[in-house]
Amino acid sequence: MLRGKTKKSGEAVRAFIMRNVEGQLGSLVARTTGQFGISRQAVHKHLRLLVDARVLSRTGPGGYQLCTLEDHKKILSVSDGIPEDIVWRTEIRDMLGALPEKALDIWRCGFTEMFSNVVAHSGSESAFVQVKKTAISSKMTMWDRGVGILNKIRSHMSLLDDRHAVVELTKGKLTTSPAAHPGQGIFFTARMFDSFSILSKGVLLSHSSSSGDDWTVETQQEGSGTLVTMTLRNATTRRIKDIYDNFSSENGSGFSTTVVPAHLAQQGSEKLVSRSEGKRLLERIDQFKVALIDFDRVESIGQAFADEIFRVYPSEHPEVDIRPIRTNKEVQSIIEGVKQKTA
Predict the structure, then answer these.
(1) How far apart are CA 234 and CA 193, in angstroms?
(2) pLDDT of residue 342
(3) Averaged pLDDT for residues 91-119
(4) What's the pLDDT tens digit per position in 308-333?
């Protein structure tokens, strides 16, 4: 009986290590000893066992990473007109191997949405797909050599710059082919996965669900087309229905709530101060019933910017409920100040 408990305990320790190995080794060892009340020597013993089993590999002195257990690559034809669900079934499903049903549901939805976008919007004749799988998670990369998603959005909406296109992309209900797509795919797909990113024109837009509903943008070397990356834990408990429900009306009228990450509209170290910046942030918001303006990582805003969003626009569009979220004290104070003018 004791031996069975010991074996089960060891499996729990190794599962914890695998879930957290991507952080700093010193922190990982400390967290593992604290979590299970075992010695540092015992943690290192479990690390050696995982290396011997080829689940982990050493990256240098004291460093470890998850081994890639499977690595599959394919080039898919985009121009042959095969429906995305058939492509999933015949070309992609087996690349992911054995996975729980919830994970497979998300992968099917994510792949078909992104591949459908390539077919409808990119102008590319093919798409490269790669799947890498570890003991903890699976990662899919999809790259096309088309016009690039940010170029497509800027041209379609006559936008000022790539930053403006990025903000519009995160809102949802954005499509350059409304007859074929409602423009909801990226908004919901990003939230299905632990991490999701789009690289276009040297702009890397990333979303993390594991650390909250968080968008970031970085500049990288510019390349052609669009590259999409999706990562999901193999044992995810996330359900597609829950994600849709979070942004849908109770009366069943569908996608009705959007989240607008205000920090993505900032240009470098410049603050959001002008009325015109407020107007740009609110473009197409009248397509939603609720707009959550996310001020995470926004240190301060100008009064004109706040007035446009929280007083002027609501007075002209009372059907849209605009709510600030994740504000600091300074930003909240400015928002409350302009709202008092309507009281």
Answers:
(1) 11
(2) 66
(3) 95
(4) 999 999 999 999 999 999 999 999 99
Asked if residue 2 has pLDDT above 80, the reply is no
| Dihedral sign (CA 147, 148, 151, 154) | positive
**CB neighbourhood size of 246 (10 A):** 12
What are the pLDDT digits (tens) for 211-243?
778 899 998 887 888 999 999 999 999 999 999
Asked if the model's pLDDT at residue 76 lies above 90, the reply is: yes
The answer to whether 310 and 338 have CB atoms below 8 angstroms apart is yes
Q: Residue 176 in contact with residue 152, Cβ under 8 Å?
A: yes
Q: How far apart are CA 148 and CA 153, in angstroms?
A: 9
Query: What pLDDT is attached to residue 9?
Result: 83
Q: Whole-angstrom distance between the N-terminal and C-terminal Cα of the chain?
A: 70
Q: 173-208: buried (b, 16+ CB within 10 Å) or exposed (e) per residue?
A: bbbbeeeebebbbbbbbbbbbbbbbbbbbebbbbbb
Asked if 185 and 113 touch (Cβ cutoff 8 Å), the reply is: yes
